[in-house]
Amino acid sequence: MWISVKALPAAVLADESRYCLFAASTARNELFAKEEHMKIAILMCCCSGVCPSMDKINFFELTERLRLEVPHDFMLLHPRLCEENGEALMRDLLKPDTIYITPACNEKHQMKLLAAGFQKAGVPMDEKHWIPVTLAQKDTEQAFADIKEAVEKAKGMAS
To answer: What are the pLDDT digits (tens) for 124-157?
Structure first.
């Protein structure tokens, strides 16, 4: 089920050019039948599709498989989460009731490059809210497996 544009915060709708939302989907199952749980979000960065370390990943195939096969609350693909408009997106959308899985560059880079976005949103970048996934040097299948594993870990935390 695709999230309606009407469901996005007014700040997002006011300036659509700031954001590159690729896929906002809901893939729920019985695990999420309870009303109260931490949400699980996949915030994926593709480094504008030009990073040589990610050239073996087909992001369209990857996001579609995740949408169909891996239960989560929503997913977003952004070209550069670490840049100013990525930080603005994070400031407007990140909430403390969500576990964020961030498939992107390596974990050490993510820790440094995504910190400002988490800080602006007022969401701690800790083990209760953030699970980084390194995409560097992986192909589509490896990336899918690693993200699926992170979602399984988040499900255990969300219950």
So the answer is: 999 999 999 999 999 999 999 999 999 999 999 9
List the 74-78 sheet strands across, edge first: 74-78, 39-45, 98-104, 130-134
pTM of the model: 0.79
Distance CA 133, CA 28 (A): 21
Separation CA 80–CA 98 (nearest Å): 21
DSSP readout, 98-130? EEEEEEES-HHHHHHHSHHHHHHHT---STTTE
| CA dihedral angle for residue 24, residue 111, residue 10, residue 75, rounded to 10 degrees | 0
Q: Which domains are assigned to the chain?
A: 5-158 (3.40.50)
DSSP 17: G
Calpha distance 59→24 (Å, rounded)? 14
What would the pLDDT profile of 67-100 be if each residue is shown by its tens digit?
999 999 999 999 999 999 999 999 999 999 999 9
